[in-house]
């Protein structure tokens, strides 16, 4: 396992998933979160990503959550 590249001992929130009725807003909270999202979405979505304007269905949000946590990101999951 690779050591963490973070220089701080406090946990930094990278992504937040916000559940609103039948959709989930993906809101990046750090540069690491933005970079992670850029690897999962095409360039035409990057502007919306940085503004927290990306909306996913619950199933897709759960897949993104699993992938983000597997990559070592700290995610606040408001979909549970």
Explain what this protein looks like in three dimensions.
The protein has a 4-stranded mixed sheet. The protein is globular. The protein has a domain at 40-80. It is built from 3 helices and 4 strands; from the N terminus they run E-E-H-H-E-H-E. The chain has 80 residues and is α+β, with helices and mostly antiparallel strands. It has helices at 31-38, 46-50, 58-70, and strands at residues 15-20, 23-28, 54-56, 75-78.
Please describe the structure with a list of short key phrases separated by commas or semicolons:
80 residues, alpha+beta, 4 strands, globular
Alpha carbon gap, first and last residue? 29 Å
Can you count the beta strands?
Answer: 4
Main pleated sheet:
4 strands, mixed
Global outline = globular
Question: Which strand order do you get reading across the main beta sheet?
Answer: 3-2-1-4
Strand-helix topology:
Blueprint: E1 15-20, E2 23-28, H1 31-38, H2 46-50, E3 54-56, H3 58-70, E4 75-78
Parallel strand pairs: 1-4
Antiparallel strand pairs: 1-2, 2-3
Brief summary of the model shown:
The chain has 80 residues and is an alpha+beta fold.
């Amino acid at each position: 396992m690779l050591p963490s590249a973070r220089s701080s001992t406090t946990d930094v929130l990278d992504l937040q998933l916000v559940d609103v009725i039948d959709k989930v807003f993906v809101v990046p909270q750090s540069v690491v979160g933005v970079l992670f999202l850029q690897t999962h979405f095409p360039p035409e979505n990057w502007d919306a990503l940085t503004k927290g304007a990306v909306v996913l269905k619950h199933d897709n949000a759960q897949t993104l959550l699993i992938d983000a946590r597997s990559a070592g990101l700290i995610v606040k999951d408001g979909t549970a």
